[in-house]
Write a structure and sequence with these properties.
- With about 150 residues, the protein is an alpha+beta fold.
- The chain contains 1 helix and 9 strands; from the N terminus they run αβββββββββ.
- Helices cover about 30% and strands about 35% of the residues.
- Strands 1, 3, 5, 6, 8 and 9 form a 6-stranded mixed β-sheet that branches. It has a 3-stranded antiparallel β-sheet with strand order 2-4-7, with no helix packed on it.
């Protein structure tokens, strides 16, 4: 009976030990992705800017079979009037080699604060969009897509 208990404890430890190595690397990867997004936003809009969540909707397919051409739609809740409009929209990747995917300039003449394009994705990831309003505030939103065939491989 003692052999069974010792063997069970050994097997439990053998299963848990590798998980201890996986968890820190997953946390480190998540932190690296957050830093890449923050650096890309600072590159486009300048350092030390406050980014608020909301007003921006990003639509990407939940599953992208081919990372070479992924449709993305970004819509910002704005009336697009002279006094309240979107100036710029940046689409940012958290896992591509180049984080800034696209930038769009808008103004009060645009009827809608909405853009559609196709992008490449290197891996399953969140795709962020950051909108700069005419008053200088930054708003963000994101969509997540699982990529089965990666693109952007250097």
């Amino acid at each position: 009976m003692k052999k069974t208990i010792a063997r069970r404890r050994f097997l439990q430890g053998a299963l848990i030990l590798p998980m201890g190595w996986v968890m820190p690397s997953a946390a480190a990867e998540t932190q690296a992705r957050r830093q890449q997004v923050a650096a890309a936003i600072a590159e486009v809009f300048g350092p030390n800017r406050t980014v608020r969540a909301g007003k921006v909707q990003v639509r990407v397919p939940a599953i992208s079979e081919n990372g070479y051409s992924v449709p993305v739609a970004v819509e910002v809740d704005s009336p697009m009037t002279r006094d309240d409009h979107v100036r710029r929209i940046a689409v940012v990747s958290e896992a591509n080699p180049l984080a800034v995917i696209a930038q769009f300039e808008l103004g009060p003449q645009a009827a809608l604060a909405k853009v559609n394009t196709r992008i490449r994705l290197a891996d399953s990831q969140r795709v962020y969009a950051v909108a700069e309003m005419n008053d200088g505030t930054l708003w963000t939103g994101y969509g997540h897509s699982i990529v089965t065939l990666a693109a952007c491989v250097i």
